[in-house]
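Posting this for the archive.
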Amino acid sequence: MAEVVVLEDAKAIGARLAAEIAARHDSSEGPYLLGCPGGRSLRTTYRALARVPRLTRLVVVMMDEYIGAPPTAHYSCARFAREEIAAPLGVPSERIWLPDPGDPEAYDRAAEEAGGIDLFLLASGASDGHVAFLPPGSRRDGRTSVLEIAETTRRDNLVTFPGFASLAAVPDRGVSVGLGTISSARALRLVLHGPDKRDAARRLLALDCFDPDWPASIVHEHDDAQIMIAQDAMP
């Protein structure tokens, strides 16, 4: 069962996570692979990381991407990675990884060949517990693949990306890491903050093992996992 850590707010979560990532990076050798979601939940962590020097071996491993997303689109994970993670941290473009919908299996192989993902940052969908684009019912051992994005996840994306004018504008296909990809990382840290995540927090805290109906509960099956919750998301 994942350890639960309650902190004052999103900024406190970001500061704590950034310090941990820096310490893990400095105590490791070779490339340091950090699994990263786009969206709102980890923004305070990325901003805090930008104030940390010496992350010279950091590799940004993005979780997913919409099929056909222009690289400059407001919802593009490639754009998010470049502008909101890599640029502030000084990470060069060759150390930004995104899954290729033409060869999704290669993503897991590349991570394994580089020594494995060191830490995966996660967020839980507010309405359905999705992580990356993985909907309820996703396989525990699933790997990176192309999939249909559930309508519940697409509705959550309307909030995450307010540039979408309607549900019809949200793409319905994406390429995403699997729960097996995520759980193979050395450590997992799942972040919840904001009143809109109270139901997600309630669902996660009521579980003590993986429930396929709530994919974010994969954290309960990992030996080094924490659920980090801000006070405003506590149920």
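The chain has a mean pLDDT of 95. The helical segments are 10-26, 43-49, 77-89, 105-113, 151-160, 179-183, 198-205.
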